[in-house]
Design a protein that fits this description.
single chain, alpha+beta, 5-stranded antiparallel sheet, 4-stranded antiparallel sheet, 12 helices
Length: 452
């Protein structure tokens, strides 16, 4: 936990975690560069174009900007303890009124350079909090080598696989940052004092850890995971950490197929394995779908799929549309990419130039949620028709084109290494990781909403 929900003047965990996810994706060295073209990038601005200049750098977990005046000259801004403490203190000061306005002030004063124009930040944080509150989340990774798009497991020997998870099964409450502010204003027309009370509260849900985790091999055999820190568990773990772990084959006829977690209130969640590989393939993480957002946009997703390509089966086409919507916007219809007006927009995060080349485009189509889904569905349909692979479809949706070195007929296992880079524009994951995760999210969307 980065904070203690419910304690005096502390920050609910879900809020702190949402800000970390937006700022750095949980990477202590995941710096974000703010470039002179009005966009932010995961790498230095001059690496994108020689004509761009760096206006500021958001450093560490909370993305504390180098021009904010908060970083002393002798301080390593990537120090987790310092970064978290400094950011939470600043956030506590900014949340002195309505909380969305406070979040915007925090973003403006702590994370971005002076004069940086951005909107939609508070909406994005709200979206992430709703994802945390909507259901359980489960992440997993393996201590195994990754090569050519797959794990290497000589002799199909058991390898350590770890899992962590959380679910909003704890206490639901509202946390007062400070006593309510009471103001009195004289109303000359009514000839009386008007009393206004502003409550400084944030809603939160305590997140609890699973009480049981197990894996299922391709053979159907169940493998129970043990919790680190428990006597006799033998699960290797870092000091102070606590994870679930088990030894299972990653290749061969008994390879791991899925991981399931169960919480104290009976909630269970299953994720497919493997899900996504990072640059070395050892990390897999899956953000589970938001059932409320899927239910809200279900009929529009079905209409978009039928409009974009009536010959393609609703499943898996509808699953692909739903996965992109949840991953890109969390189901928020008016979300700007990285809070930048003029960039990608809406449920499917469609760029203006991209929208103009799609069949369903008309001025204002991006700003109509149902039409935004249609535009995204049309793009997915076109890309799938070219590649006949959901991996390549998602990679092109994210990056915009096939990578240098690509040859027709390449399999995803052969081509995924060509996508092992983070595109410019404020992105934080590699193209390969994005494509892998989207394929996994398709499976979860199908599970959560079979109607798609």
């Amino acid at each position: 936990p980065v904070s203690q929900a419910g304690a005096k003047d502390s920050i609910p965990n879900v809020l702190a975690l949402a800000i970390i996810q937006q700022a750095s994706g949980g990477q202590a060295y995941g710096d974000r560069y703010y470039c002179s073209n009005g966009q932010s990038a995961g790498e230095q601005c001059h690496a994108v174009s020689a004509n761009l200049h760096t206006l500021g750098i958001g450093e560490g977990l909370f993305g504390i900007d180098t021009t904010s005046g908060l970083i002393p000259s002798n301080q390593n801004a990537h120090s987790v303890t310092w970064n978290v403490t400094t950011a939470l203190q600043a956030l506590g000061r900014d949340l002195s009124g309505p909380w969305k306005a406070g979040l915007s002030a925090f973003h403006r004063q702590v994370q971005t350079p002076p004069g940086w124009s951005s909107t939609g930040y508070a909406d994005r944080i709200e979206s992430l909090i709703r994802e945390y509150d909507s259901g359980p989340q489960l992440g997993a990774w393996a201590l195994a080598s990754w090569k050519n798009g797959q794990f290497t497991d000589p002799g199909h020997a058991p390898e350590w696989v770890f899992a962590v998870g959380s679910a909003p099964t704890g206490f639901h409450g509202s946390h007062a940052w400070k006593p309510a502010t009471i103001t009195r204003t004289w109303n000359p027309k009514a000839k009386k004092w008007i009393t206004t009370t502003i409550a400084h509260n944030l809603p939160y849900t305590n997140l609890s850890n699973p009480i049981q985790v197990w894996g299922i091999e391709q053979s159907g055999q169940r493998v129970n995971f043990s919790l680190s820190g428990v006597t006799g568990s033998q699960v290797p773990v870092w000091a102070g950490g606590q994870v679930w772990g088990g030894q299972v084959p990653l290749t061969g006829p008994r390879a791991l197929a899925s991981i399931t977690a169960r919480w104290a209130n009976g909630v269970t969640e299953t994720i497919p394995w493997p899900m996504t590989g990072g640059s070395n393939g050892t990390v897999a993480w899956h953000l589970l779908p938001n059932p409320q957002a899927l239910h809200r946009w279900q009929s529009d997703i079905q209409t978009a799929a039928q409009t974009a390509n009536p010959t393609m089966p609703q499943s898996p086409f509808g699953d692909a549309i739903g996965a992109v919507m949840l991953h890109e916007s969390g189901g928020i219809p008016n979300l700007w990419s990285n809070g930048i007006v003029g960039g990608a927009y809406g449920l499917m995060q469609i760029e203006p130039a991209t929208a103009k080349g799609l069949p369903g485009y008309y001025p204002g189509a991006r700003h109509n949620p149902a039409e935004n889904l249609v535009l995204g569905a049309e793009l997915l349909s076109e890309l799938y028709a070219q590649t006949h692979s959901w991996h390549f479809t998602f990679a092109e949706y994210y990056y915009g084109s096939l990578p240098p070195g690509y040859q027709p007929g390449m399999s995803w296992a052969q081509a995924s290494s060509l996508y092992d880079f983070v595109p410019s524009g404020g992105n934080t994951e590699t193209v390969a990781a994005y494509a892998d995760q989207m394929v996994a999210e398709m499976a979860s969307v199908a599970y959560e909403d079979p109607a798609l």
